[in-house]
Every structure is written in C-alpha cells, then in structure tokens.
Amino acid sequence: MKLWRYNFFYLLAILSLSTFVKSENKKSEIEKQFNQSYQAYRESLKDKKFDNAYLQAKESYKFGLKLYGEESINTARLATNYANLSVRLNKFDDDILQSISSAIKVIEDIEGYDSNNLIMAYYTKGLIYLKNNKNSNDANLMFDKAIAVSKQDKKKYAEILWEAASAHHSMKGLYSTKRWLKVISYYEKAAELFKQSSDSRYGMALFNIAKFYAMDSRHYKKAEEYFRDALIEFEKSEDKATQYQIHAFMVKLYSESYESDKATVHCLEAAKIKPNEENLQPDPLYFIWPKYPIHAAFVGKEGIVDIEFIIDKEGKVKSPKISDSKGPVIFQREALRVFKKWRFAPKLVNDVPVESKSRYSMVFKVEE
Asked: Which three-class secondary structure state does DSSP give residue 253?
C-alpha cells in the first residue's frame, strides 16, 4: 500500500512540475521562491523525507497562490499536495480545510466531476473530516465521491476503497454499527478487486472484515466465515504471525459463543506456531479483563495480583492460586473470577500438547 501512495505522490510532483515551473529569465522573486520550494518538495518526496516535504509543500502552495491566483488549476494541485501531506502527518493547520475545499471547487469547475485529480482531493478532504473534525458522515461523503470517480480505473478504485477503510480502521472509537458496516462495505469491495488481481492484500482484507463482524455477537457466524477464508490465504503465504492472530481471534469468538471444543482446536493450532514455554508469563489467546472494584477506583487504590496456575492440554486454566498480591483483597477475588475463563496455547512436547506450570501478573491501575 505504501508503495502506491509514495508513487502517487511522486507522480503528482512530476506531472505538476512541467506545468508549474516557468522560465528563470523572468527573475520574479516570488517565482524564484516558488521554484525553490517546489523543487525541494519534489526531492523530499522522492527521498521519503515527509516532514520536510510537508514544509516545502506548504511553502510552494503559499508562493503558488500568489503566482497563479486562487482559481488556477496549478494552485488547486498545490493545495492538494499540501493538504494530503498535512493530514497524513497529522499537522492540521487552520487553513487546511478551506484550502482543499477551494481546490476541489477549482478542479470541478475546470476539469469536470470525473477528473482524476479529484480522487486525491476528495479523499484528502475526507481524511480531514475524519481525523481532525471527527465527523465520519462528512468523511464518508468525500470518500464515496473519491470512490465514484476512481471506478474508471480498477487499480485506483481498489486503492481508494482500501485507503478509506484503513482510515476509519485506524481511528479509535469505531463502535457505531452504521460506521463499521460502512467500513466493511469498503473492505468487501476492495477484497473482491484484490482477489481478481491476485493482490497480496486480499487475505488482510478478509481478516479485517472478520474483525469488524466479530465486534457484534449477532454477526459471529459471518465473522467465522471470513476468519476461515483469511486463514486459508495466510497459510498459502506462510505468514505465521498473522495465522497466530487469526487463531487468537477464533479462540475469542468460540469462547464467547460457548463453543469450548472449537476454541480448543484453535488453541492447539496456535500452539504449533507459538507454544507456551513453562514458567514464563504467557500471552493469553482469550481473556476477560477484571472489573475494577468501584470503591477501590474511587479512592485511587491500585495493586497487582500474581497468579500461579497450570495450562492444561487444551489451553484451559487449571488450579489457579494467588502467589502474591499487593492492594485490597477484593483484587484477588476479581482476578481469580475472570482468570478461570482465560485460554492459552498449551506447551508442546514432540508436537504433543502437555500440561505446564505458568504464572501471570494481573495489574490493577487507575487510568488517568
């Protein structure tokens, strides 16, 4: 994905340079400053020095605005370059939304509503709405416009769908059903195109779709289907790390669906990739965080509970007991209550699962 993004930026730079750079014979001070900043922007972009590219894009936009005027297509392209780098680096200047909005209007007026230059402009404005203004509805409106324009080119269409979904995916608080169903629709369309073009991101698109369906227990069956399909793709690529993640998600899915035997299957599969090592704190495949006792949280009480236990052959917790504890006794009771439900990858001896001793430290800390 990054390769396309960098190439796309660089393509903008190359295409624009022939239009923007005028003869040095004019000796215009503004023109000199513009040429210098734009050339520096292009070189920084090529070298992937994005912080400097952002500064130079901002400068070249400022000088280009004076040189070409607000209603020039050149200025619109400069504004798009500046805004896109700005939003990707999370540098939201006060004028950024106005700059990209003006650029979009100019491109629409001069090149029409099917202009390829609108793809990046619409998408960039969508990112600003999403990341800075936290407005997913307006963001989706812009993303959908970019997607509609990009349909004439399957590769760009897939990329924008993937980028729009990934932008939402990277944001915290993606809990409204309407919002995550929108993200799923982006990923599903991208997955279909990735499959047609044998794009390696096909498996990751399936995995991401599954994770979103798994956010709601009503869609667990749908999530299960996508997890299985994603697992097949990552087994083809021999990506063990992602296979392990998928097994962990499926252990969670089946544990919460009260299908313990199915969860066990994936505990054992996870163990083949990353078996438990005795007497080291293991990473749980499935866990439930303890409820912080209200009174303890109110007075700021914190603590830690050390638990010794056995991971049985199926990855279940057996014979948990407190080995040490700091803080109120209620922390111990709450820790043991939830810990009994956790699941782990069992230890393997000659590829055979065996019981093993382990320990885990559960921390109770008041979030600031």
From this structure: helix
